[in-house]
Design a protein that fits this description.
6-stranded parallel beta sheet; TIM Barrel; Enolase-like, domain 1; 2 domains; 3-stranded antiparallel beta sheet; 38% helix; 386 residues; alpha/beta; 14 helices
Amino acid sequence: MKIVDLTWDVYRWPRPTQISNGSNTYSDGVLLLLTVWTDANIAGSGWIGGTAAERPLELFIGYAAYYRDRVIGLDPLDSEALAARLEDGHIKTFGFGGAHCQVTGALNCALWDVRGRHEQQPVHRLLSGSDQKRRVRGYIAGGYYYGEDEGGKGIEILRQELRHNVDVLGAKSVKIKVGNPTVGLEIDEKRVAAAREEIGSDVELMVDANCAFKEVETAISYARAFAPYDLFWLEEPFRPDDFEAHRRLASETEIPIATGENISTVAHFQEMISQGVLKVVNADVTILAGGYDAGMTVGRLAKAHGCIVAPHGCQELQCHYVAAADEAEGRLEIYPRKLDPERDRIFPNPLKMDADGFVNIPDLPGIGLTPNLEALAPHRVSPSKA
């Protein structure tokens, strides 16, 4: 089998309301869909973006066009060798992250989709080598800022959201945002306290700073304030390249540190994991150069050092990764309809939690949860080829 073409489309749609975390505000939903076509009449898809992922993906088209000319004629079933070929020799030009890694990560996912469709197997089964049906524990992402102030309006909205996540969606794990410098520690502690009170002691509570902290002392003060609330993890306190800040924070708190959604290489993960400061690895197979192949390498490193794997981002792609890399202890991030109502149209077969908070991973061939092209069509903002 050979690759005969690579095509792409960018889609953008308005969000009903803006959402804000510790560092960013998101107005639109946006998605770049890559499709690998083969001479066996089998096509596979991978993508970048989705909910809470606003990026100028229109600029990524040039990268997709660049790689199209370099993958035609290659074997789509040899995804690991193809990933290495695309990475070698491009460090000087593209660096270690950014659009280059995201395009090649999504391309790798598309190759695994091709392989799954070719072998009539789900991607998680091919990645793990196991024929067993798989279930992973999910957690509901959200807890964004809703105009928090001393009046408490935002905190009440947060309470309502968490109540819905637990009582209606069946969540046994939830995550909220912290660290926004315009909000401050006093209100953030009230938000965390309200969250813990609302969900009770039996539901896991994670917090995510989205790289908001610039000084280690600030992060330490937040961690100390949050200590009484039994946090399952503190995510992305700093930029992922600030190794010393992570080391210092880890030495000052017992809250497990999570990071990785902005890490693009296996080598970077290896350094972070080997230093012993991480307990949770938030790899994202559409940001990590090498996609699923690199993600499995990171997963093996994580498990060898006693970490859990909790991938970031689009659940339809990441569910296969966490199921294969860490079914027993991993966590799957799930974006609920509330954050982006259009999502249910774009992904019409949503992953749902059972009463125990676990999610059944689909056994459809390939990724099995690819976007609905008919629903996406009105949102198309770019041509299929440059």
